[in-house]
Amino acid sequence: MSSRPLEARYIGFWSIGLMLFAASFAGAAPQNTSEWGDPNSQQSLPANERSEDIASAERVENRLRQRALGIKHYTGDGVAKDKVTAFEWFSRAADQGDRVSQFILGAMYADGEGVGESKELAYMWWGLAAAQGNEKAKAYKAAIEGNMTPAQITEAQRLTTVWRSKKR
Fold first, then answer.
1. Residue 11, exposed/middle/buried by CB under 10 A (0-12, 13-18, 19+)?
2. Burial label, 78 (beta-carbon count in 10 A; 0-12, 13-18, 19+)
3. Are 134 and 146 in contact (CB under 8 A)?
4. Is residue 36 part of a domain?
């Protein structure tokens, strides 16, 4: 059991719940697929531009589907509630740059939900999400930094550098 006060332990839980609720609406697709338009209507674009646009869209769609599966497993929506499996799906989306999943991973590491507790990895994921404009992640990163030793901060920064170097 964590030595943190009860309020600090559950701050991540409530944040995850709020982010999951918001995220479930953020990527909502139209129910009527005719609203998406004709998939063959891109024929006026040059072939190389079409393929780049399609590849980019597929990466975004894949990332959002992975986040959605993480949410389903985290909340038990239609599947068995399993935070370890949720962590795996959020990790896949976060590795592709999904800032919401990066924020959620930070909270999971901070609270040890579905994964071992790690201030360094919470700091890393919140830092990555904050770098993409996630203001809540910026605040959480600052808060956890206040509870870390200089050695832990240095390690978290090293982990961030390693992660970024693998993504280039």
1. middle
2. exposed
3. no
4. no
Residue 113 in any domain: the answer is yes
* pTM for the whole structure: 0.69
Q: Where are the beta strands (DSSP E) in the chain?
A: none
Smallest CA-to-CA distance from 144 within 167, 164, 108, 120 is with: 120
pLDDT tens-digit map of 116-159? 999 999 999 999 999 999 999 999 999 999 999 999 999 999 99
How many domains does the structure of the chain reveal?
Answer: 1
CB atoms within 10 A of CB 36: 9
Residues 15 and 115: beta-carbon distance below 8 Å: no
Compute the 3-state secondary structure of the chain and give helix, strand, coil in percent, each to the nearest 5.
Answer: 75, 0, 25
84 within domain boundaries: yes
What would the pLDDT profile of 19-53 be if each residue is shown by its tens digit? 555 554 444 333 333 333 444 444 444 445 455 55
Distance CA 53, CA 49 (A): 6
